[in-house]
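Re: Re: ligand-bound prediction request (bumping)

Still looking for help on this. To restate: I need the protein modeled with calcium ion bound, output as structure tokens. Inputs repeated here so nobody has to scroll up.
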Amino acid sequence: MRIFFVLMSAIALSPTLMIASSPSASAGQLGGSATSSSSATEPLFESFMIDFEDFAAGTYIVGDEWAQYGVNISVDSNRNLKGDKQESRPLRLFDSNCSTQGSNKCSGGDYDLATGDAFGTEEQGNVLIIQEDNSKRKDRSNLGNPDDDARGGTITFRFEQAIKDLKLGFLDFDDRDRGEGFIRFYTGIDDTDAAMTFNLSSVEALVNPDFTGDNSMRIFASLDMAIQRLEVEYPGSGAITHLEYSQIAPGGSRNWGDSPDSHMF
Ligand SMILES: [Ca+2]
Ligand SMILES: [Ca+2]
Ligand SMILES: [Ca+2]
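Reply:
Sorry for the wait, this slipped through. Here it is.
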């Protein structure tokens, strides 16, 4: 069952509003979802929600898991793997329905990624993290339990076709001593300049105002803007809870570098 609630707060100096539409989830629930809408005169749009429940907590994410939803995900971590100094630390799913004690302890000691009533949020189930490298010299292939990397990095979403009505949920932005974090919306897939940038510390985007650091959840929205690339850059702890967007129903190639097949927005 999904429970939606809406929280709206106007943002000064910004053409957008933050709309908190927070999905709830529990382990094992089928996560991704899609609905379609069309009329005789409008292109067919599909609405997608990726809440990372399609796979078990602990699953490593290579980036093409949601290709059928027209998106590819990649990562450039701020620290590389211990065993291969060129390789980025990987993306992984972390179970945020966890607590500080008992049998349901948060993995990796990451209590700051816990969600639920105690933190003023819906339970978010699996969330997307950059995995810490807790490997030992004798086995560099085992990175340990799901545990977000303390130095963050950049997670990039490339959309096969332009999307609109994007909403993105972000958890636990608190490492401000390491610098600001950013969410950037790009019109074109290879654009160098962002069409819109948000500071991750934005309190206007907070879902749970009593938690501005650890366990904070923020929702960012690109209303009325068509984009083809999204970057989430953060300097420390954090996770992506979900992504919602509408996309013209794919009809073209699956070459991620291609121009969008349609500009009908
Ligand atoms: Ca989730
Ligand atoms: Ca961690
Ligand atoms: Ca934290």
